[in-house]
């Protein structure tokens, strides 16, 4: 018997797992709270070993038929999946604003359209993958992208819908079957995704959702020897456990992890443009992996840049993420607020100077003022560690060489931003050791482009062909001439 639906923000959503095309309840549940005001939203199924076992078995049973279809045969299923997401756009917006605190405006104009595109684009792109020939004097090589098998997908709370579809799109389009473990602090939009897959007529077992905590449900899934791939987005410590568990079975992992990305402002930068973009780093309360969080500003323009950015930050609307005018919402969890506060207090105690912010916001206990710290040493905790909150640092430099050394001086290597005269900024950007970097811009993403980090920010690339390289067994069929 399934559990009754939860009513969250006027949306009816199942708290149960979705396994083999059916809702499956659990004898064990956990309480979910909204980051907006810490009100309880309902109890969610906790994935026990029986559930992870059943989900992987269902995905295995569904694999032969789903993988035997051509990409063009799978296309209509995935088109319908994207359409179903579109039909429930409003529900997705309200749910993720309520359980994850993501800005409603961002959900409506960014995340939901992107979630649909994640499914559609990879379904289309899969059509171009089949049988790429390589001809040599000796032989025809038919290079095939065969689906790998059962894929486990694990996503974090800061962007559950976007990141789950980012992985599901290519995994399903390539012919794999999937088990998704949503984040326990924001599990609801992934449950709604299962309703969309069901309404789209995806065959039972092709897409399964097992709710639960990372340490138990997630660990059981990634340690199962029957799986073929793990695609993970989240923190570095979790990635290490996942890589160990999957590595024990030689299961390849794609790991998209945290960042401490530089935001470089050169002497020849458009300071107002840079400062306006800089203020965007506080969006989603700074809980954005790819945000530039370490401002590196040429000493000759630092004073003017700080004054300009201060005026942009002063205009930011901090408040309820369900209000379309809000630009900075809540921090996901009381534990996370304490973590953010701890970082700031320790930095100040170590000699950092607060340029603005530095404390909780009057709007509520889960809200923190956009904060900027300066007079910070390169080897200090605040410069070296990911805060994942609305807290940035600012350091100055005197030369391009110094800017590059500071930019590259952490163990992270996810993204970056570089403002300056375009040719100059592009040259500097090339020397910053990260997986991607934006010149005089921020956040431009194209699904055909590679995405991922280096050093502690990740292993592997997703996006475009890179997603298919990961989710497929690439095979060379050699036919002599
Ligand atoms: P987290 O690592 O705590 O959790 C992520 C997911 O892993 C959750 O679903 C969790 O339940 C699961 N998990 C935890 N332990 C597990 C285990 N032992 N085995 C299997 N699964 C396990 O991360 P978080 O706090 O939810 O997310 C924030 C982090 O994610 C930040 O570091 C942020 O930078 C990163 N992030 C990276 C990207 C990117 O694309 N690079 C995007 C968004 C977030």
From TrEMBL:
<dbReference type="Pfam" id="PF00171">
    <property type="entry name" value="Aldedh"/>
</dbReference>
<feature type="active site">
    <location>
        <position position="256"/>
    </location>
</feature>
<dbReference type="GO" id="GO:0016620">
    <property type="term" value="F:oxidoreductase activity, acting on the aldehyde or oxo group of donors, NAD or NADP as acceptor"/>
</dbReference>
<dbReference type="InterPro" id="IPR015590">
    <property type="entry name" value="Aldehyde_DH_dom"/>
</dbReference>
<dbReference type="InterPro" id="IPR016162">
    <property type="entry name" value="Ald_DH_N"/>
</dbReference>
<dbReference type="InterPro" id="IPR016160">
    <property type="entry name" value="Ald_DH_CS_CYS"/>
</dbReference>
<protein>
    <recommendedName>
        <fullName>4-(hydroxymethyl)benzenesulfonate dehydrogenase</fullName>
        <ecNumber>1.1.1.257</ecNumber>
    </recommendedName>
</protein>
<dbReference type="GO" id="GO:0018462">
    <property type="term" value="F:4-(hydroxymethyl)benzenesulfonate dehydrogenase activity"/>
</dbReference>
<dbReference type="InterPro" id="IPR016161">
    <property type="entry name" value="Ald_DH/histidinol_DH"/>
</dbReference>
<keyword id="KW-0560">Oxidoreductase</keyword>
<feature type="domain" description="Aldehyde dehydrogenase">
    <location>
        <begin position="28"/>
        <end position="477"/>
    </location>
</feature>
<dbReference type="InterPro" id="IPR016163">
    <property type="entry name" value="Ald_DH_C"/>
</dbReference>
<comment type="subunit">
    <text>Homodimer.</text>
</comment>
<comment type="similarity">
    <text>Belongs to the aldehyde dehydrogenase family.</text>
</comment>
<dbReference type="InterPro" id="IPR029510">
    <property type="entry name" value="Ald_DH_CS_GLU"/>
</dbReference>
<comment type="function">
    <text>Involved in the toluene-4-sulfonate degradation pathway. Does not discriminate between the sulfonate and the carboxyl substituents and can also be involved in the p-toluenecarboxylate degradation pathway.</text>
</comment>
């Amino acid at each position: 018997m399934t559990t009754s639906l939860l009513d969250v923000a006027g949306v009816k959503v199942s708290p149960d797992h979705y396994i083999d095309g059916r809702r499956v309840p659990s004898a064990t549940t956990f309480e979910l709270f909204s980051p907006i005001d810490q009100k309880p939203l309902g109890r969610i199924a906790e994935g026990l070993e029986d559930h992870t076992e059943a989900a992987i078995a269902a995905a295995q049973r569904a694999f032969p038929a789903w993988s035997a279809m051509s990409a063009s045969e799978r296309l209509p299923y995935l088109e319908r999946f994207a359409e179903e997401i579109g039909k429930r756009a409003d529900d997705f917006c309200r749910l993720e604003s309520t359980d994850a605190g993501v800005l409603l405006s961002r959900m409506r104009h960014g995340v939901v359209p992107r979630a649909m595109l994640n499914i559609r684009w990879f379904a289309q792109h899969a059509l171009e993958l089949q049988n790429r020939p390589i001809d040599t004097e000796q032989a025809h090589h038919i290079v095939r992208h065969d689906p790998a098998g059962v894929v486990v997908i694990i996503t974090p709370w800061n962007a559950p819908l976007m990141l789950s579809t980012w992985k599901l799109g290519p995994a399903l389009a390539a012919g794999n079957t999937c088990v998704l473990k949503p984040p326990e602090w924001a599990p609801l939009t992934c449950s709604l995704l299962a309703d969309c897959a069901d309404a789209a007529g995806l065959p039972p077992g092709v897409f399964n959702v097992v709710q639960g905590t990372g340490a138990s449900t997630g660990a059981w899934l990634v340690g199962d020897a029957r799986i073929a791939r793990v695609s993970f987005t989240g923190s570095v410590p979790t990635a290490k456990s996942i890589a160990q568990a999957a590595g024990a079975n030689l299961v390849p992992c794609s790991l998209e992890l945290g960042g401490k990305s530089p935001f470089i402002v050169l002497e020849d930068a458009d300071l107002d443009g840079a400062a306006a973009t800089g203020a965007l780093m506080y969006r989603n309360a700074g809980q954005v992996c790819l945000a530039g969080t370490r401002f590196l500003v040429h000493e000759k323009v630092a004073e003017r840049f700080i004054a300009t950015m201060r005026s942009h930050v002063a205009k930011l609307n901090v408040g309820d993420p369900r209000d379309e005018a809000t630009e900075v919402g809540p921090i996901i969890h009381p534990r996370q607020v304490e973590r953010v506060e701890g970082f700031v207090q320790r930095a100040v105690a170590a000699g950092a100077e607060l340029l603005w912010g530095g404390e909780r916001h009057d709007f509520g206990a889960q809200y923190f003022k956009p904060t900027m710290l300066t007079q910070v040493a390169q080897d200090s905790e605040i410069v070296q560690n990911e805060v994942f909150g609305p807290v940035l640092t600012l350091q100055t430099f005197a030369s391009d060489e110094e800017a590059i050394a500071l930019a590259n001086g952490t163990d992270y290597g996810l993204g970056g931003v570089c403002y300056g005269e375009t040719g100059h900024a592009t040259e500097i950007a090339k020397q910053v050791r990260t997986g991607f970097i934006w010149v005089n811009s921020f956040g431009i993403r194209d699904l055909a482009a590679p995405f991922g980090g280096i050093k502690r920010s990740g292993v592997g690339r997703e996006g475009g062909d890179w997603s298919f390289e990961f989710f497929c067994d690439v095979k060379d069929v050699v036919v002599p001439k």
